[in-house]
Amino acid sequence: MDFYLLDNINERLFEWINIGLSNKFFDIFLSNITKLGSIVFAFLFTLAICILSKNVRLTFKIVYVLAFNLIVVQILKYIFNTVRPFCVENANSNLIYSDAFVRTLGPGFPSSHSAVIFTIAFIMHRLYPRLSPLYFSIAIIVSFSRIYLGVHYPFDVLFGSLFGLISGWLFDKRFKLKDEIANRNSTRVL
Question: Is the pLDDT of residue 46 over 50?
């Protein structure tokens, strides 16, 4: 496989999204929605599930899968050790999300925001399937925001998203979310 070709596609896609689609609305909207893929949001999401479902066991399972997800992604980041777009000298990029914190981030591949939000989307899809299009639409927008804001290349986001979906699927297989759903429904009947 020609890695130069893949790298070139990755850079061209990044430039098209980050520079070609640049506008004020996206700057504001995407710099806010990107926070839904953060560790803080993952914690708040888990807390909300605990409160709304009144199911502490489910909450611990979600904490487990999100912790697993974040740990593996961090290990992968340092194994692959890829540079983020805004760190490349003479790169044609527009860093919109210019928090001082972003500048201190480590390697970019894979995107942890994408992994987290897709794991959450998959979990929500299994727990409340009627709103699946909403969960996955939000996950796609958050992942897209990482490229648009200049903090990830498209392949960082693609792999992070796939990893998040696989984590969610493995979580479902391991902890049998269908049983949690059945337990939730049976308690409503009583």
Answer: yes
